[in-house]
Amino acid sequence: MPIDTLGLLLCLLISFVAASIHGVIGFGFNFIGAPILLLLYPQLVPAPIIINSVMIVCLVGWTSRKDIQYHALGWAVCACVLGAFAAGFAMTLVSASTYSALFGSLLLLAVGVSLLGWRPAITASNAAIGGGISGFMGTITSIGGPPIALLYQRMPGPALRGTMSAYFLLTSPFILLALYGAGRLGWAELKLSIVLIPGMLLGFVCSKYLARYLNAQATRAIVLLISTAGGIVLLMRAW
């Protein structure tokens, strides 16, 4: 679907809201932006929004760079790479309707994981499992954060933001490479990523002011509600 002037403004608004929430709680740009964009302008998912997510991860992670926890991080990164390339291969085999159904299913799975409240220990095996699932989900849906957030949820805020930022910065290039191999990343996607950048940057700047009025729990509830609705709509459209 072509992006006209009204569509461009809508994309900027979506990017702005997603970046604002990401800045408040430390994650969520893809989680809230991808389902809506896939419904309205599917050409912006997954590669263009992932490119933007790398940028905001850099911005958010910069302030927490000294708090990165490296324990088991390497296992998560290596497993994520394997999951990403497995997803890239899977994407070459599915139709558009199957892709929507798979996206919606994984999105609802991500919401379910976020609601579980389970607190796994940070071990090499758990990191590998979380990283593998994150890589597969992140490549197909651009939403790979919940399995890693679940693993690191006990960390203090700065350590959580710093460690997750390091994880995404290390794994995103491989996810993008898997998308390139699947034919989902080229010059067209690079140009489309520019559509979201102004909203993303403005949202990041405004997030420090938004944090005064929205606590992390309220914002998280909004993210999960919108993502659940997006997943259900995608499944209904696929069926």
Give an account of the 3D structure.
The protein is mostly helical and 239 residues long. 77% of the residues lie in helices and 0% in strands. It has one domain (5-238). The chain has helices spanning 5-25, 29-40, 47-62, 73-91, 96-116, 124-141, 145-151, 157-181, 187-193, 197-210, 216-238. Helix 2 (29-40) packs antiparallel against helix 3 (47-62), helix 3 (47-62) packs antiparallel against helix 8 (157-181) and helix 4 runs parallel beside helix 8 (157-181). The protein is globular.
Quick summary of this structure?
The protein is an all-alpha fold and 239 residues long.
Summarize the SSE layout with pairings.
Layout: H1 5-25, H2 29-40, H3 47-62, H4 73-91, H5 96-116, H6 124-141, H7 145-151, H8 157-181, H9 187-193, H10 197-210, H11 216-238
Helix pairs in contact: 1-2, 1-10, 2-3, 2-11, 3-8, 3-9, 3-10, 4-6, 4-8, 5-7, 5-11, 6-7
Strand content: under 5%
How many domains? The number is 1
| Annotation field: number of helices | 11
Order of H and E elements: HHHHHHHHHHH
Q: Which structural class should the secondary elements be placed in?
A: mainly alpha
Helical content stands at over 70%
Distance between the terminal alpha carbons, to the nearest Å? 20 Å
Mean pLDDT: 87
**What is the general shape?**
globular
Biggest sheet layout = none
Number of strands: 0
Uncertain regions spanning at least 5 consecutive residues? none
Gyration radius over CA: 16 Å
